[in-house]
Every structure is written in structure tokens, then in C-alpha cells.
Amino acid sequence: MIKFCSLFSGSSGNALYISSGKTNILIDAGVSAKRIIQALESIGENASELSAVLVSHEHTDHTRGAGIISRKFDIPIYANENTWMCMEKQLGNIGINNRRCFNTGTEFELGDISIKTFPIPHDASEPVGFNFFLKNTKVTTATDIGHITKSLLESLYGSQLILLEANHDIEMLKVGPYPWNLKRRILGDSGHLSNEMAGKVVAYLAENGTSKFFLGHLSRENNFPELAYQTVLNALAEKNICAGRDVMLSVALRDRTSDVVEV
Ligand SMILES: [Zn+2]
Ligand SMILES: [Zn+2]
Q: Pfam families in the record, alphabetically (predicted)?
């Protein structure tokens, strides 16, 4: 059985937790180490028992607390080489034993959990999403998605639980306060995933067997939880899928720990 919890999710900072009971993994550490330690405590877990910190890409909303967590508890950080090169300075001194590298697209083991990374189109050096496998269970996390590709959909396919980005409402973003070049970046192929597109992806995956969904990495300025939820709910309803009855649909919040969900 895999336990999953979103500790923090949003453009202001991301940290997700996944555990088999034996292997405890932090996915991104984009808020302060102190807040991550407290959030773990609030769900009955201890940061000193983390097996690893995985980093999806070098943007600070994914890396802010990683260096301190690693040094304080002697925990290895896993990222691909390009991400390491870009985040090395922000992280501070990381012992050679705790500087672990994976190749995007390959599979590696952490205790009893197998991890497969897959590329994500986004404006970072080599951003990835993660598949976690324990026996027949597959859990996937994918945020900071500029656009959906066929290979990305294949990576999401067949998961029991997914945390997927629902970053912005397209209309809110267009009329919102961001300067035009930032709007263009977010809407572009290497930016972030809209609620509308997340709805399409969730509906497709729900039709194909995925039963638990978290929407994450919501923008503070261009989205709000009820809007993301309702947009995806509508996309599911179009396929006659009812959230709460047929699938679990939940919004991962920026400053509140989610329920711990088991699959
Ligand atoms: Zn990013
Ligand atoms: Zn991000």
C-alpha cells in the first residue's frame, strides 16, 4: 500500500510526500525546511526518516528547503544532471554521498519503491514527472506542464492516483494583473497547465481506470480552488463521471496539508 499526501502545492511552493511504510520520499522541497518538518509532523511522520528528496526541476518553488533538509538529516537528493547543475548554488553544500543523479526516462529503486521519471515540457533545464511503483500500484505526480504530449499521457496512464497541475483559469489569466510577457510564458508550450486542459486529461484518465485525483500547483493570482475543482468536475460530468461517487477529486492547497490517501 502507498500513502500519499500533498504537504504544500502551488506556485508559491511545492512538497509532496509518498510512503510505502518502509520507504519515505519527499517529492520537491519548495518551501522552507522548517515548514516541511512541521507539515510532516502534522501527519505523524518524521523528516529524519525520509529516504530521499526527489527534485523535479530547479525552480525555487520546488527546491527552497532541499539543501537544509539534506544537511540537517543527512538525506540524499535525487535529480538529473542538468537540474543539479542549475540548482547546485541555491542548495548550498551537499555532501557527495547525498548528491544522487538519475537519467530521465530510466527506472531506479528506492527501497521497495520503483521510480520512473519522464520528461515534462516546461521552461527549466530538464524538468521531470515521477511514476512510483509498489507491486501493482502506480502513483504519478506531474506539475509545471507547458502542454500535454502523447508520451506524457502515456506516462500518466494506468496510475491509481495522480497529482496533476491545474495552474490557471485561462480567462482569469488573460484579464489578470500579470504583464503580457509573463502571461505569454504561462500560456505558452513551456509554461503551465490550465484548469481546462487538466479537466480534459482527468476525464480521459478517469475513463481509463484512474480513480483518485489531486489538482495541484494552483496559481495564487490566476486561479482559486473552487474554480479549478468546478472546471474539472464539469469535464468529468461530460463523460458521465461523478466525482465523489466514481472518482476522488481533491484540490491540493498551497498552505494546507491534504488528507493522507492510501492506494
Ligand atoms: Zn517550474
Ligand atoms: Zn513550479
A: Lactamase_B_2
